[in-house]
Design brief:
This protein is an alpha+beta fold and 227 residues long. The protein has helices at 43-55, 61-76, 81-100, and strands at residues 4-6, 20-21, 109-123, 126-133, 151-159, 166-185, 188-205, 220-222. The model is unreliable at 1-13 and 209-227 (pLDDT under 50).
């Protein structure tokens, strides 16, 4: 089941007048352009299009023959191959722009957010750098979220996590700072694009009782996230 844990919460620590609570959606501003429409194709036609894309640029007779056969099959089925490939390229480009569109109005603000931290750097038993993510499982059991849903979190004082992905509430100064880095995770290294950076001043456990097995009532579940 697709489960997106969007943490809009009652904070365990008091906020100053200058600190604002952020919803994850604020980090992903909409782009003002018309949605690229993909042509209606069946699953088998998608497979044939993938074959054309995969083999048409290869310099071998076998690859060329394979691509041409797939292209001819699609044409016979009434699919405009070049138009479909062009639409796919534009769709993917637009999806990347959406994923990397950042809210620069947040730069320098003192904010509070909740999410799941994945430690990436340690000083002894305490982690000093993390990925702050909106839902559990990302980057470990599932692909990374969009870049504008990943915060590179620094906390020099160190925080001892109790599990690979640990729910916390964080307060600090945020800024839009897109970077792609090779990050060391528990299951290996991965290139991850992070849209934001935050210098944390406070990190606290999300649960009052860290052994709690259920989310509090003020944590909302959104089923729209796709694994």
């Amino acid at each position: 089941m697709n489960k997106f844990m969007l943490l809009t919460l009652i904070l365990p620590f008091p906020l100053s007048a200058e600190t604002e609570t952020l919803d994850w959606q604020v980090l992903a501003p909409a782009i003002n352009e018309q949605q690229v429409a993909l042509p209606p194709v069946t699953e088998s036609q998608k497979h044939l299009l993938a074959t054309v894309i995969q083999y048409q640029s290869r310099r071998s007779n076998t690859a060329s023959t394979t691509a041409q056969a797939a292209r001819e099959s699609l044409t016979e089925q009434g699919v405009d191959v070049d138009a479909a490939i062009d639409a796919r390229a534009r769709y993917m480009s637009q999806a990347q722009r959406k994923a990397e569109n950042l809210n620069t109005d947040l730069d320098g603000r003192s904010v509070s957010m909740s999410g799941f931290v994945v430690p990436t750097k340690f000083n002894g038993v305490k982690a000093t750098e993390f990925l702050l993510l909106p839902y559990a499982g990302a980057c470990i059991h599932m692909p990374p979220p969009a870049a504008n849903q990943i915060i590179k979190l620094s906390y020099p004082a160190g925080f001892e996590v109790e599990s690979v992905q640990f729910p916390v509430t964080v307060r600090g100064v945020i800024k839009a700072d897109k970077k792609t880095e090779l990050v060391q995770l528990v299951d290996g290294k991965m290139n991850i694009t992070m849209g934001y950076a935050m210098e944390a001043t406070v990190i606290e456990k999300y649960y009052r009782d860290a052994t709690s097995a259920t989310m509090p009532a003020h944590v909302h579940m959104n089923e729209d996230h796709n694994h």
